[in-house]
Design goal:
about 70% helix, 2 strands
């Protein structure tokens, strides 16, 4: 028999006028000061419109209902509106608990937990249409309309999942309901009391329903325990995987540190390239200025040559001087040709030397770039590590300078950089040996922790075995109770048949039948007493075993959680 689907708040309306102190309504729910602008004309018009629309929509049946009725209502109209709203909120309520309507209205408002019930007096209820009383009463009616509008949402299972509103047969057994024992107990008491009022002294159907619900709840709890055990096994497997595999966070942190180091190196390399580009640009500008100066010098020489030729042409020359000059010119021409040949050979040799020099310069530049990349990759640039902060490992190569000794700038490679590199190699080798020793120590610590975890898991196995034993005992006990109940039912059927036979033979042996009946009644009473006693013992045993299972499960869960936390911390 399902429960009546109604708000637990409003069930008290038909019981008593006392204020309940349990549930979500416990505490100080009343206030003594009105916070709504109930004396504002616009706010009053809004409340009147909403109340009128709701009453019209619900077909309240109040004669001559109009919007003006909610402006200056009579005493009868106010009581009709109030009674309709109360009936709409709680259809099971019957008016007439109190002799005076004013007392009943205040009692109903207290049962409904109206926050401003203390602001409503019996005098105002006696004359509700007065200008001083009507704003407060209008706000109260508006509050009742709001409650009536929101009530279907509370009863809608898609909006509100209050298990107190569900019928007992629709309660989910696979969900943890805090007050589940109270719900099934109140349902049992309600149904048994109804049967008692109909004159029944036995409540077998209600007992079977209660046992069925408890059994279904126990099955759900056992299923949840099985699911928890499966989840524990999965977590153990995952823990083992995490022990074998390195942590992703450590790998990501290492990768992050490597990226930061590469970023520093890349920033230093970019700065070096920018400085080298600036230096090459300065060299190109210097060469361009020198080329312009040489072009200007050649132009000046050509101009001087033309002026000399003009002066020679303007002077008078004799035949002897012309012959001598021609001979001298021929000699100079031969000498010029010899010099040109020698200059050509020198230029060719200089070109070969320049090509070789440029090739060597490119090789040296490539070696310098390789060296620069190497010191950036090893961390010696741009900021050398300790104790080499005072040494600048960077080397700059400038092939455009005229002084060969200034082509390579930086610390002396043979006297400074090479000894520092050798010292760094020795320090790195020592650090590597120390890291290997630390790794061995960490491996030993990990092995020790692994053995401790295995020991804790071995300690947990007896408790799991004990849990399985308790479950098996519970199943055996349930089967025993079922067999005893069947036997008791068979015995009761047999006794009923015997009683029928005795009743059929009353005419033959009234005295014998009476004695037989009394004996059978005594035996039947004794059997029923034993059956009831057996049921009580069975229920007590089931409750005790369930409590033991729950406590043991909680201890095992706490132990496993501590184990998981210990594994995570280590």
């Amino acid at each position: 028999m399902g429960r009546v689907v109604a708000l637990s708040t409003f069930r008290s309306l038909s019981w008593s006028g006392s204020v309940k102190k349990t549930g979500f309504l416990a505490g100080n729910w009343s206030i003594s000061r009105e916070t709504r602008p109930i004396k504002d004309r616009a706010y009053q018009a809004m409340m009147q419109r909403e109340i009128f629309d709701y009453l019209t929509l619900q077909r309240c049946g109040i004669p001559n209902l109009a919007l003006k009725t909610l402006q200056t209502p009579t005493n009868r109209e106010f009581h009709l509106i109030f009674q309709f709203l109360i009936t709409d909120v709680d259809p099971s309520y019957v008016f007439g608990r109190e002799k005076k309507p004013e007392d009943e209205i205040i009692l109903l408002l207290r049962d409904l937990r109206y926050p401003l019930v203390d602001t409503i007096s019996k005098t105002s209820l006696a004359a509700p249409g007065s200008s001083s009383a009507w704003p407060t009463l209008l706000a109260m009616l508006h509050w009742l309309v709001t409650i009536a509008k929101e009530l279907p949402k509370w009863l809608d299972p898609d909006i509100c999942n209050d298990y107190n509103l569900l019928p007992i047969e629709e309660l989910p057994f696979d969900v943890e309901i805090p007050n589940f024992p109270e719900l099934i107990t109140s349902e049992y008491v309600f149904n048994a009391y109804a049967q008692y009022m109909y004159g029944h002294d036995e409540f077998r159907e209600q007992d079977m329903e209660l046992e069925n619900m408890v059994e279904r709840k126990n099955e759900a709890v056992v299923q949840r325990c099985d699911e928890a055990e499966t989840r524990i096994r999965e977590l153990r497997t995952e823990i083992e995987k995490l022990k074998v595999q390195p942590s992703e966070l450590v790998a990501l942190d290492r990768e992050h540190q490597k990226c930061l180091t590469d970023l520093d190196k890349l920033s230093g390399l970019i700065e070096e390239r920018e400085a080298k580009f600036k230096k090459n640009r300065d060299v190109v500008e210097t060469l361009n200025s020198r080329l312009l100066a040489q072009e200007q010098e050649i132009a000046d020489l050509n101009q001087e040559h033309e002026s000399i030729l003009a002066r020679i042409a303007s002077q008078g020359v004799t035949d002897e001087e012309a012959a001598r000059m021609n001979a001298e010119r021929d000699r100079l021409k031969r000498v010029h040709e010899e010099l040109l040949a020698k200059a050509s050979l020198s230029l060719r040799a200089a070109g070969d030397v320049e090509i070789l020099s440029e090739k060597r310069a490119n090789e040296v530049d490539a070696l310098a770039s390789k060296y620069t990349n190497l010191i950036y990759n090893t961390g010696f640039a741009p900021r050398p590590p300790e104790p080499f902060q005072s040494i600048n490992f960077q080397v700059e190569f400038n092939p455009a300078t005229e002084n060969p000794s200034e082509m390579v700038k930086g610390a002396n490679m043979r006297e400074v950089i090479h000894p520092a590199m050798r010292k760094a190699l020795e320090m790195t080798s020592s650090a590597r040996v120390e890291l290997e020793n630390e790794k061995l120590e960490e491996d030993n610590t990990l092995d020790r922790l692994t053995q401790e975890c295995e020991g804790m898991m071995e300690d947990a196995e007896p408790k799991e075995n004990q849990l399985r034993v308790l479950q098996k005992r519970y199943e055996d006990l349930k089967r025993t109770v079922g067999a005893e109940t069947a036997a008791a039912n068979a015995e009761a059927g047999k006794l009923e048949r015997d009683i029928g036979e005795i009743q059929a033979s009353v005419a033959q042996s009234k005295i014998a039948l009476q004695s037989r009946k009394e004996r059978l009644e005594v035996e039947y009473t004794d059997v029923m007493r034993k059956t009831e006693h057996l049921k009580e013992e069975t229920k007590d045993k089931i409750s005790f075993e369930c409590n033991q299972m729950v406590n043991f499960k909680r201890d095992v869960t706490k132990l496993l959680e501590d184990l998981v936390l210990f594994a995570r911390d280590n």
